[in-house]
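Researcher: Structure prediction, please.
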Amino acid sequence: METEQKPKKKFYKRWWFWAIIVVIFIIIGSSGSKNNSNNTPTTANNSVESSNSKPAATNPVTIKASTPTPTQTPTSVPVKTQDKPAPTPSETVSQRNAVAKAKSYLNYTAFSHDGLVTQLEYEQFSHADAVYGADNSGANWNEQAAKKAKAYMEYSAFSRGSLIAQLEYDKFTQAQAEYGANAVGL
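Model: Predicted structure follows.
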């Protein structure tokens, strides 16, 4: 009995191919946007002189740049005082991915800070990256406790004490658990 094999996707139908193309265009676009004012000829102050002694067909044309007169002001060129290197991103790829994953989880359901760190570690993020992801997820942990409390109250009936205990089990702090219980009216 033979199993059917799926045909391989062509390389241009894979996500990584298009990611490379986008990066190349970004690099090309950023290198082409530099100021090339020194290479651009200015034609506003150029004048054409011709001699009437020769026929037009053999008449050479001389282009002479005019110098500014006292009434004209030369255009000033901005002077860079100091070239500063572009700031390097301090966030690693793994940290950026941990933040994205943390935000994704928070869009799905409510988490405590420590519960989110545990979930990110389950996803094979290092502890440091998981903490970074939770810290930079933009979550308000009191609001997360209130959302989790509301979800529990929709699922089952709780006393104030049992709801607080459940929220603490989910790794919310005592203050966050009490905030969540207060938010649902307990």
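Model: Helices lie at 15-32, 93-108, 113-122, 127-135, 141-155, 160-169, 174-183.
Researcher: Thanks, that helps.
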